[in-house]
Write a structure and sequence with these properties.
The structure holds two protein chains of two kinds. By secondary structure, chain A is mainly alpha-helical. In chain A, 62% of the residues lie in helices and 3% in strands. Chain A has helices spanning 2-11, 25-41, 45-82, 89-132, 140-158, 162-171, 180-194, 199-207, 209-214, 219-233, 237-252, 256-263, 275-281, 284-300, 308-320, 339-345, 384-393, and strands at 373-375, 381-383, 397-399, 406-408, 413-414. Chain A is elongated, with a radius of gyration of 33 Å. Chain B is 61% helix and 3% strand. Chain B has helices at residues 3-44, 51-68, 70-95, 111-124, 128-138, 147-161, 166-174, 176-181, 186-201, 204-215, 225-234, 251-267, 275-297, 301-306, 352-359, and strands at 341-343, 349-351, 366-367, 374-375, 381-382. Classes of the chains: A mainly alpha, B mainly alpha. Chain A: It is found in: Cytoplasm.
């Protein structure tokens, strides 16, 4: 099973990461490093997609504005010229002048809209340029720091810690790379939902109706259900029934069971003890709505469902997790030596190695064919370079750092580990 | 990744957007112009209230507008723009992985733990205001545990930046036992640097008394360094021309600041680099493999979620190797307390289980899988990495 998966992994499309590596070890490392960077760029879909979706939205709304105004103006002209009764010139002049005013208003709005579009286009471009700048080897560390900060800002925004997000974006100078304004749009809706106000959420659904429909979203339906329940809670039964007829019926075909369950609440009071229906009146329903909205919002904008931090942290902990991390002797440099990280990593799978990877206890450097392991008479193993250094400084004598036993450098034996 | 292709596709979007925007505004001007023309015609007609005249002007206007049909033009512009946008979206979906959360396991990350990790990270980076802001927004007062020690550390680093070693020396002397136990000569290095500072900016006399006060008491430990410093006294005022010129290099300050930070963090039981940075960097390294694994494995969601060990290695660079992990070349299993690595007389290393299997009984010698040498179980000794 392992072998099959291994081969499949190698055969799966991997961009240009599988370029033939030259024999020289150093060159191989830098090729591998470049390949690794190229792979990591592929993970940045969200960075590029979100400003694009934002731009598309602005373009759409500008278009709809122009469409509306054109239609109104053209209709007005058609009506004026088509009417059979005699109109005075003054009336017609007034009408035409008002159309001109309307067009001038449209011109102004389109100019402003155009400016917004330009800003968003610039942001899209800035993101692409930022990805390209990873090729600049001198600034690579800064680029990586910026990436960590971007991931943190994404987390802060999703958790609604807006002040911290703004603070970090400014401090790290990554404002162009963060989607703070997009999240602010969501902030309004989320805060109103937390205040049990459904109006902004419903407006948002209306604004994004075609795309929500395309993705078969039930968000609007769930918001309407909540509105219905609030009417029932206030004992406004007639209003609730009319509301259901108008707003819930259109969704009945695809959501019959859900609708029936909610409509049945009419038969109960809001402080009913019946568990199936009691839960519908709980304040936790609002939290559920907030989560649903967040998910739809992220989906529309091309953002991942989970915060980037969680995704990368999970992957990282899995990659680092070995049984040795949970032992007392775990090096403090390993993140998994910290209690918090250990707890987070508990439900995650362990990493796997196919070949031995050894680290010298003394120098913390890898023990490989350039620095092979040497075995002391007591069975402890250290790297050749570290032991040679120790021998040089102590007239050929070796003291095991862990047991204190002393021996001669000549007594050491080579171990061959593949 | 073909960034050029993506940028080209976006340039096309940008061009189309500008075109659409300016043409739309032009259409508005055109409509406006026609209507204004009609108004002017009406106002210049002699026969002010003549119905047919009025009708004619309006009919002309309507026809004119239909002629260049602004609605159709608007629609066409938008359609074109949408096509270009659609193409760009396709390019991005091909070049990037459109869903990196595919390999995500639905385990609950306790938000309190995550918040504590983030707050510690901010304090470690020296972002104290941000850390405080975060803690109040996230409502995690206990997350400020590491704030005080890191404040101290940055205070010392700041004074070192201003070439004042007093705080650093205080810290080093109050932790001299710990430093000695961990094989660090930080205190000595600080004293050396301070000595050079005094020699450069103060008097030879003071420099000498500095050595007498701080370095002489422990002279036996500093056999090499003290003579060097004494030698500097001879060249005082011309140190840059002396054989000891390298002591003046500003590098020493940077390196010493780094070393101080390393020792400080280590004494605190913390890593030198932010653990969050390391974990995230490991994640970025390993996520492509995990995503490929998830898509190739084609297992049910439950199997993926319940996995105890990855079936495939994630290749992390040397920076992420914190432990020695032995993998038996025969059984491909990781070494453990119950199954430790054993060294055979030929120098090859196998796991204990492999050796037991190969020997079939515990006294007969067996052949090493990698070379013709034979060995018995008793000749193999356990290794400790």
């Amino acid at each position: 099973m392992d072998m099959a998966v291994d081969m499949a992994i190698d055969a799966a499309p991997n961009g240009d990461a599988s370029a033939a590596a030259p024999a020289v070890a150093a060159a191989h490392t830098s090729t591998a490093r470049l390949a690794q960077i190229a792979e990591s760029l592929k993970l940045e879909h969200q960075l590029v997609r979100v400003p694009l979706e934002h731009l598309k939205k602005t373009i759409r709304s500008n278009y709809r504005l122009a469409e509306r105004e054109f239609t109104a103006v053209l209709n007005s002209v058609a009506e004026a010229s088509g009417s059979s009764d005699s109109r005075s010139m003054d009336e017609t002049l007034t009408r035409l002048s008002s159309l001109v005013t309307r067009l001038q208003g449209l011109k102004r709005k389109l100019e402003e809209g155009g400016k917004v579009e330009n800003v968003q286009v610039q942001r899209c471009r800035a993101r692409l340029e930022h990805l390209g700048s990873v090729a600049d080897a001198d600034k690579l560390d800064d680029w990586k720091d910026a990436r960590l900060n971007r991931i943190l800002v994404d987390y802060l925004l999703r958790m609604s810690y807006y002040d911290s997000a703004k603070n970090l974006a400014e401090t790290a100078d990554i404002q162009e790379l963060a989607d703070i304004d997009v999240f602010f749009e969501a902030k309004r809706v989320i805060e109103s939902l937390r205040n049990k106000d459904l109006a902004p959420a419903l407006v948002w659904c209306a604004e994004n109706k075609p795309r929500l429909k395309k993705s078969k979203s039930k968000l609007e339906f769930q918001l309407r259900l909540q509105e219905f329940i609030e009417l029932v809670r206030a004992n406004e039964h007639m209003k609730a029934i009319f509301y259901a007829r108008r707003y819930l019926a259109p969704w009945a075909a695809t959501n019959m069971k859900e609708m029936q369950r909610v409509v049945t609440t009419l038969a109960f009071r809001h402080n009913t003890e019946c568990s199936i229906y009691k839960v519908l009146f709980e304040p936790t329903q609002w939290d559920y709505l907030v989560e649903q909205f967040k998910q739809e919002f992220c989906r529309l904008f091309g953002m991942t469902n989970e915060p980037l931090l969680n995704i990368y942290l999970q992957a990282g902990l899995t990659a680092l997790k070995t049984p040795l991390c949970y032992k007392e002797a775990c090096s403090k440099e390993d993140p998994l030596s910290q209690e918090g990280f250990r707890r987070l990593a508990e439900p995650l799978p362990f990493s796997k190695l196919h070949h031995s990877k050894l680290v010298c206890y003394i120098s913390k450097k890898p023990m490989d064919h350039e620095n092979p392991p040497l075995v002391l008479p007591n069975g402890h193993v250290y790297s050749t370079k570290a032991l040679e250094e120790m021998s040089r400084q102590n007239d050929g004598r070796i003291t095991c750092p862990r047991t204190g036993e002393v021996c001669n450098f000549t007594e050491l034996v080579k171990a061959f580990i593949s | 990744m073909e960034l050029d292709l993506i940028q080209d596709a976006f340039d096309r979007v940008s061009k189309k957007q500008k075109l659409s925007s300016s043409k739309t505004q032009q259409l508005v001007r055109q409509i406006e112009h026609e209507i204004e023309q009609a108004i002017m015609k009406m106002q210049s007609t002699e026969n002010a209230t003549s119905c047919p005249e009025l009708k004619q002007i309006l009919a002309d206007l309507k026809n004119k507008l239909n002629e260049f049909s602004p609605m159709n033009q608007l629609e066409t512009l938008q359609k074109d723009l949408n096509i270009t946008l659609g193409k760009y979206v396709k390019v991005t979906e091909k070049s990037f992985n459109p869903d990196i959360s595919k390999a995500y396991r639905n385990v609950d990350f306790d938000p309190h733990i995550v918040n504590q990790i983030i707050a510690s990270h901010f304090y470690r980076q020296g972002l104290f205001d941000l850390g405080d802001c975060f803690i109040s927004e996230a409502n995690e007062p206990e997350a400020a545990a590491l704030k005080t020690p890191f404040l101290e550390m940055y205070g010392i680093l700041e004074s070192m930046r201003r070439r004042n070693l007093e705080l650093a020396l205080n810290w080093a002397s109050s932790h001299s036992e710990w430093l000695a136990q961990n094989g660090s000569n930080l205190e000595l290095k600080l004293h050396q640097l301070q000595f050079v500072e005094i020699l450069q900016n103060d008097s030879v006399q003071n420099a000498l008394s500095y050595v007498r006060k701080h370095l002489a008491p422990n002279a036996s430990a500093h056999k090499v360094e003290i003579p060097k410093l004494m030698g500097c006294l001879v060249w005082s005022g011309k140190l840059h021309k002396s054989p000891y010129a390298d002591l003046l290099s500003p590098n020493h300050w940077e390196k010493l600041a780094d070393e101080f930070m390393q020792q400080f963090c280590s004494c605190l039981g913390q890593s030198y680099q932010s653990p969050l940075s390391i974990a995230i960097a490991a994640g970025i390294h390993g996520l492509p493999t995990l995503l490929k694994l998830e898509s190739v494995m084609a297992v049910k969601k439950q199997e993926w979620q319940a996995m105890k060990q990855l079936p495939v290695p994630i290749d992390l660079s040397k920076d992420f190797q914190f432990h020695s992990i032995f993998v038996c070349p025969v059984l491909r299993e990781q070494g453990s307390d119950e199954n430790p690595p054993m060294l055979m007389p030929c120098g090859h290393v196998l796991s204990k289980q492999s050796i037991v299997k190969l020997s079939k009984s515990s006294t007969r010698p067996f052949k090493c899988p990698y070379c013709p040498l034979e060995a018995s179980v008793a000749q193999c000794r356990q290794l400790h990495f």
